[in-house]
Amino acid sequence: MKYRRLGKTDLQVSVIGVGTWQYGGEWGRDFSQGEVTDILHRAGDLGINFIDTAECYGDHLSEMLIGGAISSARQNWIIATKFGHKYHGYLNRSEPRTPTDIVEQLEGSLRALRTDYIDIYQYHSMRNSEFDDMGVRDVLQKAKQAGKIRHIGSSISPNDNTHQTDGATAADVETIQVIYNRLDRKPEEKVLPSCQKQDLGVLARVPLASGLLSGKYRPGVAFPQGDVRHGKPQDQIDEQLREVARIQREEVPSGVSMATWALAWCLRHPAVSCVIPGCKSVEQLETNAAAADLD
């Protein structure tokens, strides 16, 4: 495994992390504690030290499964979680975002993760007006002073949100999480240069474009109900998959997994500290980890 400095946090993060939205039950299946434990223990064996989660991946469910897997080795992991949403059911969330809400969410995350501190506590796709809320900023500063969080980050949406990126330093935000992959290079225009200028750590999410860059799918694929990709316009999916086929034919070296190459492609940009693909199995995790060898 290789490691990079996560911007001004000075944390040394593995270039491959583990994204954990799937453990909340919104990717078409539920995960047992044993499955998550096996995946994260293997991740540790491979040198991966970064986990990204959120309070709304299930009702703190992903966090609870992570806590159950790593609490005995907490010191070996850098954990990033988020605030600003509450899970009510499949793709059904509300947005409790007052200072009082944030305090409650933080305490819930600490309990679920079985830890007394969170390494990176991230705004979760907040509106710009909410990002600017001085009451929320005050709550976060008090949590830092109490040692409950070490660093503040922002998981931005959309992925060209320059308001939150450019305003990061003033808000004591040290990391930016952003959708970035071979099919969506929008952050290269303004967001990534702004991160470099401010020395912000960059976490690239959705690096496999929700699996489209895995190389497993062809135009016409029908994603079943219960899959987050179900219901998206078929013409858009088919257009993206035709582009994936072209990329695989013209850019991916022979003998290299498309998924592994796609993760390594994200890491070529000097602003990116870590990519955070999800994985449903130990085998997928190992394919992801192999991207560090291509970087």
UniProtKB/TrEMBL annotation:
Q: Name one Pfam family in it.
A: Aldo_ket_red
Task: Describe the location of the NADP-dependent oxidoreductase domain by residue ranges.
Answer: 16-293
- What Gene3D superfamilies does the database record attribute to this sequence? NADP-dependent oxidoreductase domain
Which regions span the lipid bilayer? none
Judging by the UniProt lineage, the source's domain of life is Bacteria
Q: What is this protein called?
A: Aldo/keto reductase
The protein's organism comes out as Humisphaera borealis
